[in-house]
Each structure stands twice: as structure tokens, then as C-alpha cells.
Amino acid sequence: MIEITLLGTGSPIPDPNRAGPSTLVRAGGQLFLVDCGRGVLQRAAAVGVGASGLSALLLTHLHSDHIGDLGDLLITRWVTTFTPDPPPLPIIGPPGTAETVAATLTAFNHDISYRIAHHADLTAPPPVEVHEYTEGLAWDRDGVSIRVAPTDHRPVTPTIGFRIESGPASVVLAGDTVPCASLDELAAGAGALVHTVIRKDIVTHVPQQRIKDICDYHSSVEQAAATAARAGVGILVMTHYVPALVPGQEEQWRALAASEFSGHIELGDDLHRVEVGARP
Ligand SMILES: [Zn+2]
Ligand SMILES: [Zn+2]
């Protein structure tokens, strides 16, 4: 059994009810945070998860909405891990991740030096261990494996999706992408596919060209559903709603997805939880 919690279902546009993109995946006693948008630690606190409890941080890409709270996560994990010689936080992301993590730590240089000066048991900066991947096996520990494949969010490149497996259960996290063969292959037969979605039927009518531009590198609800259908996944979990999902309109979004995918469809607000077992 793998448990998915949509910690943040928002987008770059601040929303009073939706944190930035981030998904928590609990598999085989391990806890993976996939992307870390704004407000992620507040949402994680709501389900009893702290930064120090994470097994690894997985980043699909380096767009600001997906890494907005990276600094908060790194510093908070550091100051709330009380075991001596804490292991480094594994961070798995596309090429560019090491540079982004290093620059984030540099931005917090003053904070880090204050805390090292103040606390006798903090003697070194936050320990991290960055692994950059565009494809292949990125994690294989205690019965949980994570495979990476490229996605297509051009001109944002490289971008990656993750397939997390624990026993017979599997979950794929697509991130932001248009439909592509490598995602179809990564998601093939998975128990669940977590996919970001935008309503192109609405967004194409927004007068600002900069808003319209987002249509060309994201999947619509129907495209995400068609990917789920081609890959033959059990459950489609939609997140990263653009525009924000308005309470009461869930069935509209569900119907658009159901026009392309006959499996189970999940959508909802921050903290929506989905359990994924073995495929029937
Ligand atoms: Zn993006
Ligand atoms: Zn995004």
C-alpha cells in the first residue's frame, strides 16, 4: 500500500486555500516529498509530518512554484533534527538541482552562521546529498524503489517524473508536462498517476498573453486523462489546478477527465489523501 497526500494543489498564483505544488508519498515506511511549493511545511504539519521525518526530497523540475519553500525545508529540517550527526537529506532532481540547492544554502548563509554560533550542537551547515537524474533507478532502499524518466515541459528542461514502487503498489508523479512517450512508458500499468492539470478551455480565454502561454507546456485535464488511459493506470489523481478548483465544480473537472479515462479519478483540496494498493 502506498499513501498519497496532496499537500499543495495550487499553482504559481497565490491562493488563500491552496499551498504550492507538493505531494507527500508514504511507501514502505518511507516518506517522500515530491516538490516543495509555498506553504509545504504548514500543510505537512497538518498531517503530523515534519521536515526531519522525510526520507528524501524529489524535485520534478526547478520552476519557482515547485521549489518555493526549498530554503524553509532545508533550514527547518536542519534545526529540528535532534539526533547527533544527522544523515544528509537526499535530494533527487534534474540537472541544475545541485546548483539550486547550493545557491539556496548560500542565500541562508547569515542564518546558518547565526545558528552555528548560537547552538553548541550545530557545528556544520545543513547536510544535503544531491543526486541529479534524467532517467534510471534513483532509489532502491528497504523494499522501495524510485525510477526516473524525462518529461516534456519545454522550454523548461530537463524535467523528470518519478515512479515509486513498494511491493505490488506503484505511484507515478508526472509533474508539469505535455503528453509524451517517456511518461507513458514510466506510468505503464501503475496503480496511480499524479498529474498536474490546467483547464485550457478556460485559460485560452484569459486576455493576458503571459497567462495563455502556460497552455503550451502543460497538459489539459483531458490530456492528462488520455495519458492515464494510454498507460493503463488504475487511478488518475489530478493536482496543480489552473485555474484554482472552485468548490462545487469538482464534478465538471471529473467529467472532463472521464471523457478520456474510464478508471478511478481523484481530485480535491489540499490534504486530500489517496490510498493505492496492488492492482486488482
Ligand atoms: Zn513547471
Ligand atoms: Zn507548476
Automatic annotation (TrEMBL):
Enzyme Commission number(s) from the entry: 3.1.26.11
UniProt-recorded Gene Ontology molecular function terms: 3'-tRNA processing endoribonuclease activity; metal ion binding
Signal peptide interval: none
All copies of domain Metallo-beta-lactamase, residue ranges: 19-218
Catalytic function, reaction form: Endonucleolytic cleavage of RNA, removing extra 3' nucleotides from tRNA precursor, generating 3' termini of tRNAs. A 3'-hydroxy group is left at the tRNA terminus and a 5'-phosphoryl group is left at the trailer molecule
SMART domains on file: Lactamase_B
Matches recorded under Gene3D superfamilies: Ribonuclease Z/Hydroxyacylglutathione hydrolase-like
SUPFAM superfamilies (alphabetical): Metallo-hydrolase/oxidoreductase
InterPro entries linked to this entry: AtsA-like_MBL-fold (IPR044094), Metallo-B-lactamas (IPR001279), RibonucZ/Hydroxyglut_hydro (IPR036866), RNase_Z/BN (IPR013471)
Active site: 65
Domain of life: Bacteria
Keyword entries, A-Z: Endonuclease, Hydrolase, Metal-binding, Nuclease, tRNA processing, Zinc
Cofactor names: Zn(2+)
Oligomer status and interactors: Homodimer.
HAMAP family: RNase_Z_BN
Protein family per UniProt: Belongs to the RNase Z family.
Function: Zinc phosphodiesterase, which displays some tRNA 3'-processing endonuclease activity. Probably involved in tRNA maturation, by removing a 3'-trailer from precursor tRNA.
Protein name: Ribonuclease Z
Record organism: Mycobacterium haemophilum
